Amino acid sequence: MIGVSRIEDGRAILADVDWVVQPDERWIVLGCNGSGKSTLLRIASLYLHPSRGTVRVLGEELGHTDVRQLRRRVGYSAAAFAELLRPALSVRDVVMTAKYAALEPWWHVYDDADRARAVDMLERVGCEDFVDHVFATLSSGERQRVLLARTLFTEPGVILLDEPTAALDLAGREQLVANLDALAADPTTPPIVLVTHHVEEIPPSFTHALLLRDGRVLANGPIDECMDAATLSACFGLTLELERRAGRWLAWAKPGS
Questions:
Q1: How many CA atoms lie within 13 A of 96 on its CB side?
Q2: Phi-psi label, residue 121: left if phi above 0, alpha if psi -120 to 50, beta otherwise
Q3: Do 62 and 15 meet the contact criterion of CB atoms below 8 Å apart?
Q4: Which pLDDT tens digit goes with each residue over 223-250?
Q5: Which of 68, 75, 132, 208 falls between 20 and 30 A from 247, CA-CA?
Q6: Angstrom distances, CA of residue 78 to CA of 16, 37, 215
Q7: What letters, b where the CB count within 10 A reaches 16 and e where it falls short, cover 198-214?
């Protein structure tokens, strides 16, 4: 992205964002509510156009390419995506329909290779035992892991995840963070971008950070250079303490702040 802005109702949701994700990088996007995180990912996933600026995804420029085809090369999932799926769908169908970026299996034809690949992707995130379960019967954490398997189905060139840990309990969050950490550590995995509000949800293997405040970039680069108490405090508008233990980040409000 170069000079990307998004104006809605006269207000800048994003303002002059410059951001480049390289093939071997794993990015965390941090910011409080309303900072522009989800808008940024919707633009990167080709579901929203910027008001100005240039967006290139996998070598193709938004506005000069067929986004219907390009979207199939982008593994995108948002926390609310589960609500778009028919509750009675099987877990296998939820994953397999990613082949055509569809929500239902009856719109296209699938073969045994597609069904086998769905199982392989579920196995990669530890959900192979759920393959024939009804999606609606899974816990929130299990659903997000299944949606992660869905993003992997098409061998995407980039994976974009918008707050997949939202509404998860502690066990569900930790399992998903472990899955993301394993994916990030695998050199065959394409670049990953994870949006979150919470530093505790950053997998240890993630390499870079983009911090947003009111639609503007506060920090952008290697995670060890971007993540410090002063920058994080400016990002969230609160005086914070920050530590890293066993590869995981911890943040809390400074007493008396």
A1: 24
A2: alpha
A3: no
A4: 999 999 999 999 999 999 999 998 999 9
A5: 75
A6: 24, 12, 19
A7: ebebbbebbbbbbbbbb
Q: Specify the pTM.
A: 0.89
Q: Which residue's entry shows tokens 């816990």? A: 139
- CA-CA distance, 213 to 129, in Å (whole number)? 41
d(CA 30, CA 177): 15
Provide the CATH number for the domain around residue 216.
3.40.50.300
| Distance separating alpha carbons of residues 51 and 204, to the nearest angstrom | 35
At residue 103, what is the residue type?
L
Show the domain range for 91: 2-253
* Distances 120 to 6, 36, 160, 194, 228 between C-alpha atoms, Å: 38, 34, 20, 23, 39
